Amino acid sequence: MSEAMLSKVRKLLAQAEDPACTPAEAAAFTAKATELIARYGVDRALLASRDPATDPVGDRVVEVIAPYARDKAGLLAAVADPLRCRCVRRRHGSGFAMHLFGFASDLERVDLLFTSLLVQAAHGLAGTPVPAGEQPAAFRRSWLAGFAQSIGARLRAAETAAATDPGTPGVALVLADRSDRVQRRLAEVYPRLRSAPPRRLAGSGFASGADAGRRADLGGPSMGTGPRAGRVLGR
Predict the structure, then answer these.
(1) How far is 27 from 117, CA to CA, in rounded Å?
(2) Model-level pTM?
(3) CA gap 19, 22 in Å, rounded
């Protein structure tokens, strides 16, 4: 992502997090930041359709570490899918190695968003009390599931809006072709891939996590400066 675009996103999200900002103002700033990130993805896709060398298909491995590694991996998948990336979860020590496939610009967007959202999720969990009598780990897992679901829905809505902008005719075909190419790349590496069975979560934190996901800053003002709970491993 260009420094100019990143600077705009950081400024908008810093305004959204200002304690003096009203909820309506914060929502407007966050929506604008999300729009910029989605617009960047469309712009890069259109550029690559004319000059493929500017945005090649690639992959990277992100290590997702304990605690709550499976739930963090779910958040990564919720970010990756709307941004036209695919991921494969592999066991790695006490956590997971998430093998991501996508175009370079989309992998970059996933990395930036996931890093920020991990920090925001940690803050949200720390500020959410576990109900009396409930097992803390179960509550937190369900909270993270709700958070991831809301994030995925928000990102999908922003990407759809950017792709259907009247000012960019034909972009839907370009994006569909990119998704197909990413899927083919994944199938080449994992020809016998199987889907994991759905999880059953017992905690009552889903609604609270979903609400936090609806309020989360998509992009994060700490991008590039905050702690990273997902470490990129070279291939």
Answers:
(1) 16
(2) 0.77
(3) 8
